[in-house]
Amino acid sequence: MSTSHRSSSVNGTREPDGVTFFILQGLSSLGDRQMILFVILLLGYIITQGGNSMIIFLSDQIISSTDPKLHSPMYFFLANLSFVDMVYTTTTIPKMLVGFLSDVSTISVPGCFLQMFFFIQLGITSRGILTAMAYDRYLAICHPLHYTSIMTQHIQLLLIAGAWAFGTFCTLPANLITWHQPYCGPNVVKHGWGDPSSVRRLACADTSVDNTVSLSLALVALLTTGVLILTSYVLIGISVSRMSVAQRLKAFGTCVSHLTVVSISYTVRIIVAVLYAALTPFLNPVIYSLRNKELQESIRRTLVRFRSATVSVTKDISTVS
């Protein structure tokens, strides 16, 4: 490609042979103030990854415990939710951070659509897992005598697989339709990542079908998970209303963490996509850690072992000296 063609592509003008990459405009208009957002996003990303990694580690420790009382499906679902949150933020945040450090942030067309697919798919999958967790709470509170016989390891795996399959079903059709649209220029995406609506505006063809399919599947994803979670908690509420005060408090304690995460997940939709990509995965490990006694105890034991190991190493060094 000649120098003139390259410069025209960077300026967002038409490419004679079609677009081969997109320019992510992001928040380039902020100028030097981008570094402030860079630091905030970087810290948020590190905390998110660290917090969710800790949740996965502690959940694994609890599940592997010899105490059968701790073998709760909730920890299995929680570990999977944390894993999805880690990958979810990784699909967009690192690329955005790199964009803050460069004059022009570009992404290949295949890379853009892969990012688009996984960002949306993982977002829906996390809601599917939250739905599975709501069903788990429903069984534990409304059918405690049959809970262990129903919520077997096989059912847990099916619920997680269903969450991933549901996320793929609600994402892949619209993604493929948008992928097969012709893109002849301009190639500037007015977003910090491959946002579907921003990319569709660059297509050189009618995108009404893309928009309809995308909106329809988004409604399916939002309403299906929302209705199932709401139904679970309505049934839980009816069951709890028949309990004693002590039983009500216990039931509320088992649900409050999940309810908090669900509320954040759905209400945060009104916040801009950049904050949404980082906020929910960041808060999930914080909420579940603070509200769960087993996780608190596991964190305490881990810190005690770490402190003991540090003291031992210090003593060894002092002895050698």
UniProtKB/TrEMBL annotation:
One Pfam family from the UniProt entry?
Answer: 7tm_4
Keywords for the protein's UniProt record, in alphabetical order = Cell membrane, G-protein coupled receptor, Membrane, Olfaction, Receptor, Sensory transduction, Transducer, Transmembrane, Transmembrane helix
Q: What is the lineage of its organism?
A: Eukaryota, Metazoa, Chordata, Craniata, Vertebrata
Membrane topology annotation: Multi-pass membrane protein
Cite the G-protein coupled receptors family 1 profile domain residue spans from the record.
51-275
- Which InterPro entries does this UniProt record tie to the protein? GPCR_Rhodpsn, GPCR_Rhodpsn_7TM, Olfact_rcpt
By its UniProt entry, which SUPFAM superfamilies does this protein fall under?
A: Family A G protein-coupled receptor-like
Q: Where in the cell is it found?
A: Cell membrane
PROSITE patterns, sorted: G_PROTEIN_RECEP_F1_2 (PS50262)
**Entry's Gene Ontology cellular component terms:** plasma membrane
The UniProt record lists the keyword Transport: no
In alphabetical order, the GO MF annotations are: G protein-coupled receptor activity; olfactory receptor activity
- Which source organism does the UniProt entry give? Monopterus albus (Swamp eel)
> What is the designated name of this protein?
G-protein coupled receptors family 1 profile domain-containing protein
Record field: transmembrane = 35-58, 70-93, 113-135, 155-177, 215-238, 259-279
